């Protein structure tokens, strides 16, 4: 994978894993911090994305979301989350169309993204960026297959493949297995960054990612 910031084709010497869910504002902010860190590097950085499903406990058997399902989060939690989002927006100089996206289910977006990592890895970073931008900058519903198809077209992916992947029960099951594996590894929230056994949780600043990746953590 080429470095998204420099466009270099040199073999990356450092590697970073990120566990994330598109519907999480802190994941979006974390990717903005990551982009700033990558821009500061002289060498490429290999980034490997792992999906994480924050809506799993609210999803009914038919795939719909139970908005009334208890998730342990009250109004005070969401107010604090909004304050934290606004603080990080200022810290990372990020514009956002919304601070929370509680009515959006990102599972189909993650299915599509997971499929792209397997079949079109050279286009994944552009697709990943397009999904985040659609939700957090443009306020679009990334749970809508038509939106995902539009985003795929924008980054040069075959739209029929993306539509088929979203509906493919085998791919959906593989994604669920991948999320379960992440939980077994001890990932309980997102974003989670991992580099050479070192772990950082939350929307950490670029300097923190630098220390994580370069071994000064």
UniProtKB/TrEMBL annotation:
One Pfam family this sequence matches: DSBA
Source organism superkingdom: Archaea
Gene Ontology process terms (BP): glutathione metabolic process
Signal peptide: none
DSBA-like thioredoxin domain location: 16-211
GO molecular function terms attached to this record: glutathione peroxidase activity; glutathione transferase activity
Protein name per UniProt: DsbA family oxidoreductase
Organism for this UniProt entry: Natrinema altunense
